[in-house]
Structures
1.
Amino acid sequence: MTLLTIHMSSSARWGLYLAVDLGGTNFRVCSVQLNGDTTFNLTFNKVAIPKELMVAKTARELFSFLADQIEEFLRAHHEEHFVETKKQMTGPSSARDPFRLGFTFSFPVNQVGINKGKLIRWTKGFDIPDAIGEDVCGLLQEAIDRLGLPVKVAALVNDTVGTLMARAYTSTEGSQPILGAIFGTGTNGAYLEKLSKIRKPLDGTYDKSTGEMVINTEWGSFDNQLNVLPTTRWDAALDESTVNRGVQKFEKRVSGMFLGEIVRLATLDMMKDESVSLFRDANSSFNDWKSTTNVSPQSGLLKPWGLDSSIMSVAAADNTPELSTLRQELESALDIFAPSLEDAQSFKAVANAVGRRAARLSAVAIAAIVLQSGKLDGPDKEVVDIGVDGSLVEHYPFFRDMIYEALKAIDGIGPEGAERIRIGIAKDGSGVGAALIALVAAKMESETDFEYKAKAETSWFE
Ligand code: GLC
């Protein structure tokens, strides 16, 4: 079975697509040139999403900001094409051919068409109540139209689905991924399932001919009842302080947005404990003789959400006997002055425990999909490929190693199974995936609109 084949006649319009990505700390706008031969060229711009827009009063504020970024990007990177397309848009309708845009919107959505989906709930710190239940492509298209941009929102994609697509497109060995997963600000996975196994009623229009469908699992909300997830008092405290209390419990133990806060809460409790001498050395044997450890009242350690998860990467990467990089980082990032070696060791132990737990839980989610796919049961010992993306897998040292270590210990996988699982980064997955789906969407539009489509054939999931 080929997971994703987009094969076209030579006249098919591989080409330039826009992709935007909303779902983490940054908003990314990219243009992707799909060359049709597993390669692509990507230009992108990213801006941090202003915190106040994540909890804006109205969806219109957030989506207007997104449309502004799209306009800026087009003017900066595709000025000529932009002006030309804009001119065309005011000409006869037969000549109109706007930029096609794939919208990677990485929140739970009830998707009812290729460019239509209603927001179920926000995650990852976003909270704009009037967007719930709305078609997010419609919201973006309206904002684009308010600016008069020649852009059509052609496809709606979750980042995990984009990652799965991108991994399939860039695969040069013919082996197709069984899972696209994100371990970044949030966590989630998408995989291919047989329609016969899907019990949930499906609304909307979809192609039944392949007998399969991509499922966005939204595993971030696995076990919100906490039947099996490990729980500490810091997990409970963290959940209380989020805008989406009571949900995304798996995500809150696994993904980058939350790990730093768990470390902070645990560290703070240790500091408050009189019997523990964390960050209060007057004269540690390993410390400089004159320096007294001192935590500034401004320290991020003392402020809710004040500890960025990235310091966990520094802690994991520093294996020097003096932990000098980590000690410097404690000072520069957290205003903890002259931390002793023992302080740094304790911090590292806490951070590593939180990071390792996240990796082991990630392995559980991956293993569930691998087992569900039945791929390990086949006689031919083929590679089971998984495409991943996100800051944790990319930047947290040893994250993938820890996942493999855990996979080996899982029933039904074991060391032999783990050996056959290949977890590979699908770099820029969501951008490329969104562009690919925008391309497919363009093919699905009425043939009278776009002459080129008559010559193209697209097949999904053969
Ligand atoms: C959150 C979102 C999900 C997304 C994931 C990774 O879990 O709900 O849709 O895929 O984050 O970005």
2.
Amino acid sequence: MKTEKLKTYYLIIGMVCLCFLTASVGFTFYSMEEYEKKDISHFKENVESMRNSVSNMIKGNIEILDGMALTIGQMEITDIEHLQPIIKKVNDRNAFLQMGFVDADGTGDMVDLDGTIHRDVDFSDESFFQKAMGGETAISNTFKDEYTNGYLNYYGVPVVIQGETVGILAAADKTDRLREVLDVPIFSKGGYANVIDDQGAYVVRSINSPAIEHIEDIGDFTEEELKNIHRELKEGEEDFIRFNKEGKKTWAAYMPLGINDWYLLGIVSKDATGSAYHLFAGMIIIVTSAMAIFIFLVYCITRVQVKNERELERLAYQDPLLGINNYIKFNKDLSETLAKEGFRKIAFWYCDIDNFKLFNESFGYEAGDQLLKSLAQLFDECARKDELFCRETSDHYVGIRYYKEPSELKAWYEELTERLEHYHIFKQQSFRLVLSMGFYCADMPEHLLTVNEMYNRARIAQKTVKEKKNIKYAFYSDSLHSQLLRENEIEANMNQALCEHRFKVYVQPKAALADDNRISGGEALVRWADPEKGMISPGEFIPLFEKNGFIVPLDRYMMESVCQWLHGYMAAGGRPIRLAVNVSRLGIFQEDFVDYYTNMKNQYQIPDGLLELEFTESLAIEDNSLLRQRIDELTARGFICSLDDFGAGYSSLNTLKDLAIQVLKLDMLFFKRSDNDEKAKIIIANIVRMAKQLHIRVVAEGVEEPEQVEFLKECGCDIIQGYVFERPMPCDEFERLLSKDPHGDWGSGFKRT
Ligand code: C2E
Ligand code: CA
Ligand code: CA
């Protein structure tokens, strides 16, 4: 996956997750607020209902006592003995622990449930007593009961006789009864209630309450907050407060009970509230975790995917031996570079190691691999910024080089070859490595082609180098291209042309110098008669046929055509004439070579000594032993063998020593006008002399000037073939020419003695 694609992919996932998360968080906060609001009002309701329960319970007690106090007042009975039956009657229903009448001086006789009377109990210092004497109904704070070991509260109700408060009706009630009401958990399990007074001090503590004595201790309050709480308690206001208790968020609400300036104080830890909120928060955590896991998985999967893709890309784009880019990657990169960049002069190069096969065979394949690596390293070292290269196949490298002048490319090539020589692997070896290189230069924007097209052109240029000896780099040109196209066309048509007999025999007569320049024979030369292009000369197709091997069937075709013509000519009464047929050296490698030529000669009944085979020299063949063998066999079968184009190309004086040839054809180049005419003459004279001494006849070819004829005659040259006498002509024309001189002794005088 491409990195950009991946980035967008991650961005989308990230954004979706972010939206989802933001929405979740927002919704959570909103819900939390809503839940809290609901929780608070629910909590307040709970505290209020508890306040009502407590208040009702106390008020119930007070109502009973109020009734009794009224009765006592009306009956004007205050001594305990008279009161006891009334108390007992009331207590049967209410079970006050103790009841009695307390005088205005604060002492009273109290009677227990079981009827025991406690005399002169002193309440004078108790605030409930003082309050009740003041005409208010009052409840005492919680007392420890020495007899039962439990806790109790005293109720005090004023007893009025004839408009004067004469004392109070006092009744003790178990604090536990109040507690039973208080002990019911409020709001949730963590909530509890206490009764406090207007100072904030605890009056009754419920069973769930921690051992605290004062409202100030229920949480961590600031001065300000405490002041506010105290003020509210003083003024009988109710309130809801939030605070922290040992780091825990806590809520409390206090509400006046309407008795004694007491308050019901409800407290709950916030943690114990909102279970729905916890559920919700849990859900959010789960969703978020799931999302995180999902993102992580996506990340892992894409990572593996990216890794795999990178590996695949590496395999697809990398040269397995050298670790550098392969042609596919090079092509891709270069195409992208060319599409992006503004125009710069660019040379596309194709490089081949000339003798790599030999190197491999000489030093082994490991050394060969090492060489390929060194070469890659060399190209890398010599490359400038943005210059790309790769190995295409085996020992073929391609690349680009930016340049301003073509001479820079030549200099670069020379630098490469020079540096290559210094590579350690060759230092000990006396092996000279040759790089042959072809360039396609795009020096104008319109010359920029696709990578493959430029590759093909650089390769065409490089191919022309392979055949050359000295210069090992070449530039692509349009003429090179059209030559290639021509060659392709020729190759496409050659077989058909052979089948359709489009190859024609032309004959160029040869003149014997010793015989008044009379025609002594001729050389058969091929012409391609094309229906569209007319007569095509062999210079255009013979070199190609020598490369592609088609020369062998063509030579045989020419041989047969010549035999056919000669047979017909002689059958019609023509005097025997010697004809030379060109034979490419490639042909001698055919096993049936001698047999074929002999069979043709026999088939058309051509007498010995009339057919001459000119071995052309266009191919360099180092080893002459096969040719020598062939020449010996052919000579034995009545052929005359000659060496064509002597002095040009690859022939040397050594060949004369090795080969038993009868005729030597001096190359045309000797007769081309030049500044070195005098030197040429010396060489010609000496070759002719040497040939004579070896009993080899000399034919001078390409002679155009009469002076040259004179000179050759003086030298002792035997035969002249050239435009000075005749040009190559069709067979029938040649036949007409011969008929003009019917007495010429054409067949004689060429036997080697
Ligand atoms: P070559 O065998 O050396 O043939 C002589 C070439 O020199 C002929 O060219 C001929 O036309 C040309 N020539 C003769 N006299 C003169 C002259 O005074 N001045 C100049 N400038 N040229 C002269 P052509 O026919 O074009 O043949 C070219 C080459 O093609 C031949 O050179 C030969 O190597 C090859 N060739 C022609 N026919 C055959 C063939 O049937 N088989 C093979 N293997 N090669 C052939
Ligand atoms: Ca020839
Ligand atoms: Ca020749």
